[in-house]
């Protein structure tokens, strides 16, 4: 982990402020935003420091992969939060992990201390194998987790077991320092320590296992062990087990817990599967294609138009007064309005057209085999649909409206390549907005 990272705080309470003060004063993080109602008791702490408050992740501008999302409450955040964070490359951590990563080890945070050796290995794990990264497989990340955890606590071996078939069986998914078969399983109702840890959902430390009849794992005899449930909310996903061949081994559950937390986040992200992959190209707020997919599709369509001597038009829409609407109606209704505008564009497009959200209040329509006259008709129809749409308003308001302006360019009429096509559409949009709201401008008409 870098020496300094930007962090977003999720839903803090007033009683969390001493912890936040400690994290900020440590110099390890800079709080750049908070997901918090402006009327909440903790809001003043953030606004007094010039930190923006937002209703959800989608509202925060300028998020970058690698930033932290600190879930200041106990346990893991909701699955949809993990999903949204993962799609943006954010690393979700909880308060305990934040203290270990950013807090000095001698600070008393109600039992949340920190072992420097464990912290060193955990930071290296996160730095090299961010759970939300798509550059490494899940199995590689799990193996790295066990390697770092074993090294941090001088463990002779370690395993990760996860629940299968409705939790009746625990299956091996990663091992270190052991030679178990890949299809190794344990019945969750068996009498071994692993099964007990999983079914009870509570950590267990056994400093001396000599003379104890209960096995750690079937066929595994060790001198001491630490077992931690891997939890998502209150439901255990599995268990992390570390052991030593020496009795009276010193195990620190507080220092081990970030590794179990890392595994929980990793398994949650992995279980999202196709949803996460889909969200890499889909804007989660509107359901439209995102900027990355738009650029890819624009390249494809211009290449096709060049190869077969076709015409293609591009429309860039910008919402004229979204900031004013958000100020009047609130970001929650603002997000609903964005979603409604996305639906208007999607319904008003042909099946062959490509609709994307390419910025906070910007949308793009790629119109294959459409000349500039056809593009003007589409843009004007959609502009009118937005202007007449009954957008949501708070109870104390009688009306609120939103309008859009648009810039249009065409290939090959006003551009020789995809870069010029996009640039000229933005130039036309700038001319349209310079003339006022609810306006459309074709690049050929622009100075």
On the 0-100 scale, what is the average pLDDT?
A: 82
Q: Give the radius of gyration.
A: 27 Å
Identify the CATH class of one domain.
Alpha Beta
Q: What is the level-2 CATH architecture name of one domain?
A: 2-Layer Sandwich
Percent helix among the residues?
Answer: 25-40%
Q: Report the count of strand segments.
A: 16
CATH superfamily (homologous) name of one domain? Reverse transcriptase/Diguanylate cyclase domain
Distance N to C terminus: 50 Å
- Biggest sheet overview: 6 strands, antiparallel
Percent strand equals 15-25%
Q: How are strands sequenced across the largest beta sheet? A: 8-7-6-11-10-9
Poorly predicted runs: 104-114
Shape designation: elongated
Number of DSSP helices?
Answer: 14
Write the element-wise H/E pattern from the N-terminal end onward.
EHEHEEHEHHHEEEHEEEHHHEHHEEHEHE
- Summing up helix and strand content along with how strands pair, one would put the structural category as alpha/beta
CATH topology of one domain: Alpha-Beta Plaits
Describe this structure in words.
This protein has 447 residues and is an alpha/beta fold. The protein has a domain at 281-445: Reverse transcriptase/Diguanylate cyclase domain (Alpha-Beta Plaits), CATH 3.30.70.270. 38% of the residues lie in helices and 21% in strands. The chain has 14 helices and 16 strands. It has helices at 17-25, 43-47, 79-87, 95-102, 116-128, 138-152, 193-200, 253-272, 274-279, 291-308, 322-329, 331-348, 372-387, 418-434, and strands spanning 5-10, 29-35, 52-54, 68-71, 91-94, 157-164, 169-176, 185-187, 204-206, 224-232, 235-244, 312-319, 354-357, 362-368, 404-411, 440-442. The strands form three sheets. Strands 8-7-6-11-10-9 form a six-stranded antiparallel beta sheet, with helices on both faces. A five-stranded parallel beta sheet has the order 3-2-1-4-5, with helices on both faces. Helix 11 (322-329) crosses helix 12 (331-348). The longest helix is centred in the middle third of the chain and has 20 residues, at 253-272. 42% of the residues are buried.
């Amino acid at each position: 982990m870098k020496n300094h990272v930007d962090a977003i705080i999720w839903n803090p309470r007033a009683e969390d402020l001493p912890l936040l003060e400690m994290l900020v004063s440590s110099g390890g993080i800079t709080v750049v935003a908070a997901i918090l109602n402006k009327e909440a008791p903790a809001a003043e702490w953030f606004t007094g420091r010039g930190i923006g408050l937002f209703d959800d992740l989608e509202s925060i501008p300028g998020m970058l992969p690698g930033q932290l999302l600190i879930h200041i409450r106990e346990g893991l955040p909701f699955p949809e939060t993990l999903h949204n964070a993962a799609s943006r490359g954010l690393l979700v951590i909880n308060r305990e992990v934040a203290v270990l990563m950013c807090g000095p080890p001698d600070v008393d945070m109600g039992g949340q201390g920190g072992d420097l050796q464990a912290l060193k290995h955990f930071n290296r794990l996160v730095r090299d194998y961010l759970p939300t990264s798509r550059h490494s497989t899940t199995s590689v990340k799990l193996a790295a987790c066990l390697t770092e955890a074993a090294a941090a606590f001088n463990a002779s071996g370690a395993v990760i077991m996860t629940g299968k078939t409705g939790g009746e069986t625990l299956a091996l998914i990663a091992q270190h320092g052991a030679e178990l078969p890949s299809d190794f399983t344990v019945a969750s109702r068996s009498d071994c320590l692993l099964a007990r840890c999983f079914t009870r959902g509570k950590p267990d430390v056994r400093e001396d296992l000599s003379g104890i009849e209960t096995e750690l794992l079937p066929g595994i005899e060790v001198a001491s062990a630490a077992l931690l449930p891997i939890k998502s909310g209150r439901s255990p996903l599995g268990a992390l087990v570390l052991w030593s061949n020496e009795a009276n081994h010193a195990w620190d559950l507080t220092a081990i817990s970030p590794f179990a937390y890392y595994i929980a986040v990793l398994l949650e992200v992995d279980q999202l599967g196709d949803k996460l992959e889909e969200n890499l190209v889909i804007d989660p707020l509107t359901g439209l294609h995102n900027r990355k997919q738009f650029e890819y599709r624009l390249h494809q369509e211009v290449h096709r138009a060049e190869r077969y001597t076709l015409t293609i038009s591009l429309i860039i829409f910008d919402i004229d007064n979204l900031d004013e609407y958000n100020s009047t109606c609130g970001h929650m209704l603002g997000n609903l309005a964005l979603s409604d505008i996305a639906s208007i564009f999607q319904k008003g497009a042909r099946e062959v057209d490509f609709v994307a959200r390419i910025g906070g209040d910007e949308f793009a329509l790629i119109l294959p085999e459409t000349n500039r006259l056809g593009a003007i008709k589409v843009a004007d129809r959609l502009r009118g649909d937005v202007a007449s749409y009954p957008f949501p308003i708070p109870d104390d308001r009688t009306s609120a409206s939103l309008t859009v302006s648009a810039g249009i360019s065409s290939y090959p009429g006003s551009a020789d390549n995809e870069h010029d096509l996009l640039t000229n559409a933005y130039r036309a949009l700038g001319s349209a907005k310079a003339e006022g709201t609810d306006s459309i401008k074709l690049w050929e008409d622009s100075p």
